[in-house]
Amino acid sequence: DLVQGIAQAVEEFKGRTGIQVTVNAEVAGLILTPNAQIHAIHILGEALANIEKHARATHVWVTLTREGNEAILKVKDNGVGIEGNGEKPGHYGLSIMQERAQAIEGRVTIESNAGVGTTVTLAIALAKSVLGFTETEGDTKNTQNS
């Protein structure tokens, strides 16, 4: 379950770093495919690892919300921000997050301002069953009544 995975990743992060984390991830009816959940938790882990290694943050906020047909996972910190494009030689964390998001037809955006912090946002389409669709013999049919 995604909410449990978030809680576990955050607890491990807090245990390693002592950085304060506020989590808001109680979203009823938010269903992702198992593959999407795994990738989302790994992206969260990578974002937290980047904060641990580079941000010099004192607080992190992790939120999971639903916006339309998407689950939105945000990781925000109050650290030093990312300089340039964020990729240093031998460091591939940001590109790995992008690749993981693409693998589940999601997208990662990174917003950063020097001295203010960084926000990593993952948007993933909800499982079709949540939206009233079922997969049958390769065709997608709407099961909602009009």
Detail the topology: elements first, then pairings:
Layout: H1 2-17, E1 20-24, H2 34-55, E2 59-67, E3 70-77, H3 93-103, E4 107-113, E5 117-125, E6 133-136, E7 139-142
Parallel strand pairs: 1-2
Antiparallel strand pairs: 2-3, 3-5, 4-5, 6-7
Supply the helix-strand structural class: alpha+beta
- Alpha plus pi helix count: 3
What letter string, H or E per element, gives the SSE order?
HEHEEHEEEE
Strand content: 25-35%
Low-confidence stretches: 133-146
Order of strands across the widest beta sheet? 1-2-3-5-4
The best one-word shape is globular
Helix content: 25-40%
> Averaged pLDDT, please?
84
Please report the distance between the alpha carbons of the first and last residues: 31 Å
Number of strands: 7
Radius of gyration: 16 Å
The biggest beta sheet reads: 5 strands, mixed
Describe it for me?
By secondary structure, the chain is α+β, with helices and mostly antiparallel strands. Helix content is 34%, strand content 32%. It contains three helices and seven strands. Strands 1-2-3-5-4 form a five-stranded mixed β-sheet, covered by helices on one side. A two-stranded antiparallel sheet has the order 6-7. It is globular. The two termini are 31 Å apart. Residues 133-146 have low confidence and may be disordered.
Task: Based on the model shown, name its key terms.
two-stranded antiparallel sheet; 7 strands; 146 residues; 32% strand; disordered C terminus; five-stranded mixed β-sheet; alpha+beta
Task: Offer a concise description of the structure.
The chain is an alpha+beta fold. The protein is built from three helices and seven strands, in the order αβαββαββββ.
